[in-house]
Amino acid sequence: MINCIIVDDEQHAIDILQHYTQQVPMLNLVAATTNPIEALQVIATQPVDLVFLDIQMPEISGIDFIKALGGKTRVILTTAYSEFALEGYELDVVDYLLKPVRLPRFLAAVQKAAKSLNETIADKPKEEEEEDYIFVKTELKGKLLKINLADIDYIEGMKNYVGISCAGKKTLVNTSMKEMEERLPERQFMRVHKSFIIAVDRISGIEGNRILLKNVSAEILIGENYKAILMERVKGRII
């Protein structure tokens, strides 16, 4: 699955690309926006593999947007002006789509992006792969405990400690919520409140300002400062 985002200052252009993404099973549209600053915030807070990016936008150009990404995601440029093609390719974009974009040409660009992403995964050294466990300092001095990330339901801030909950069992760790948030992979975990970090795949529902987790009875609150990011992350899954 390729997580993608559409950035274009024209809503009509977004509507066309959004319709095309719905025809491609391998694409998961995370967000579509006319605001490039908002798009950069989305990319900074959740996994995005591919950006369909307009070049000429009033607030920030597509070229400057690519430079701001720092190579974090693949980019397919979309524009009505072919003279920007050379500069775009110099920035190592996957492909360049001229408007009006036709579906066959769109599909060809997506295939190129998929091939590029697969090659990157295949070439990635094992030591760079995300770890599937952590060692934590418990309340007992000198004791380290191994915790598998797949076992974590949620993490709760508790004054001088954080509590890591796994299948109803809570382990107290001598660290801060900020340190835990920085240590955990973004693809698997998300901070939703100053006192809560959740495992994303444990979410079973959202009710008002509460998150429901599978097989977890604890009340997980959504903080006002985190709600917009949470809803942006799940937006592509709402039907």
TrEMBL record:
<feature type="modified residue" description="4-aspartylphosphate">
    <location>
        <position position="54"/>
    </location>
</feature>
<keyword id="KW-0597">Phosphoprotein</keyword>
<feature type="domain" description="Response regulatory">
    <location>
        <begin position="3"/>
        <end position="114"/>
    </location>
</feature>
<dbReference type="InterPro" id="IPR007492">
    <property type="entry name" value="LytTR_DNA-bd_dom"/>
</dbReference>
<dbReference type="InterPro" id="IPR001789">
    <property type="entry name" value="Sig_transdc_resp-reg_receiver"/>
</dbReference>
<dbReference type="InterPro" id="IPR046947">
    <property type="entry name" value="LytR-like"/>
</dbReference>
<feature type="domain" description="HTH LytTR-type">
    <location>
        <begin position="140"/>
        <end position="207"/>
    </location>
</feature>
<protein>
    <submittedName>
        <fullName>LytTR family DNA-binding domain-containing protein</fullName>
    </submittedName>
</protein>
<dbReference type="Pfam" id="PF00072">
    <property type="entry name" value="Response_reg"/>
</dbReference>
<dbReference type="InterPro" id="IPR011006">
    <property type="entry name" value="CheY-like_superfamily"/>
</dbReference>
<keyword id="KW-0238">DNA-binding</keyword>
<dbReference type="Pfam" id="PF04397">
    <property type="entry name" value="LytTR"/>
</dbReference>
<dbReference type="GO" id="GO:0003677">
    <property type="term" value="F:DNA binding"/>
</dbReference>
